[in-house]
Amino acid sequence: MALEDAAKQMDMAFTREDLKGPSYELTFGGATSFLRRKYTKDLTGVDIAVTGVPFDQAVTNRPGTRLGPRAIREASALQAPDAPYGWDFDVLSEFAIADYGDLAFDYGHVSQFPAALTAHIKTILDAGAASVVLGGDHYISFPILKAYAEKYGPISLLQFDAHTDTWQDDDMDRIDHGTMFYKAVKSGIVDPTTSVQVGIRTTNEDTMGVNIIDARKVHERGPQATVAQIKEILGDRPCYLTFDIDALDPAFAPGTGTPVWGGLTSAQASIMLRDLAGINIMGGDVVEVSPPFDTTGATAIAGAHVATEILSLLGYRMRTA
């Protein structure tokens, strides 16, 4: 496909026949799958499945993250159809990437949601694909991690966030977006000694043994030194990357449930995500995009770029495996 194809092609999310390559469409029209990837429930031959989880039962203050997946997909249409900038390969052309749509669940039976999400991700993993998840409040990472730990064993967590989300909560059935990584460590699905949280800037006395690189350290030492420390902690262990959009300062991402000043800049985040190439990443998510609190769309744009970087990190790992 070439640029002139934009004059005669539309709705490639439904009409394209393959799962690879760019999609040249009018940025202001067409079906807005993630990066114009093909919408399909057929995972045959899929390398990476992008899926949405429109869930926000457990936000502290600002609701609206259930609208995050839709907003991120729409914002992704603004990205150039060319290879993601800064990488020496094009993940969209080399790998079969599909938009697997959103998780279906009964909003009237919230207690059934975690198992439904774990099964949803397990379906993707059992098909031989990796998942990139668009959230949704941050609780969703816990059911997702259960599916990954079932396949890979205790997994390392790489978390970009303003909060550790390790506040004590021994009720494993309780759904809370601030305690799920306490539960993930305590239940043995996350190895804290080889896990790291980046951008933290809220007080929590018990970090469950997870390594912390707070926002001030990132600002003082810079992205490159931060990445070097992250890679040293992770080693070559299988890891899962979760990016809470409030890792970014509210100046760059105001549309989130729990904004905290002093955060990462979008430039710092972009440098770190690209320089993380080579980590043994198995999957990832971007969460807490709450469109009602950002009429500019900047937060959704940031979320779309983060998801694109996660795709590229996965592709880099797959092509060098």
Automatic annotation (TrEMBL):
Q: What are the UniProt keywords, alphabetically?
A: Hydrolase, Manganese, Metal-binding
Q: Which cofactor does this sequence's record say it needs?
A: Mn(2+)
What is a single Pfam family found in this protein's UniProt entry?
Answer: Arginase
Q: What start and end residues bound the annotated signal peptide?
A: none
Q: Name one GO molecular function term.
A: metal ion binding
Q: Identify the PANTHER family for this entry.
A: ARGINASE/AGMATINASE, GUANIDINO ACID HYDROLASE, MITOCHONDRIAL
| Name assigned to this protein | Agmatinase
Task: Write down the species.
Answer: Sulfitobacter delicatus
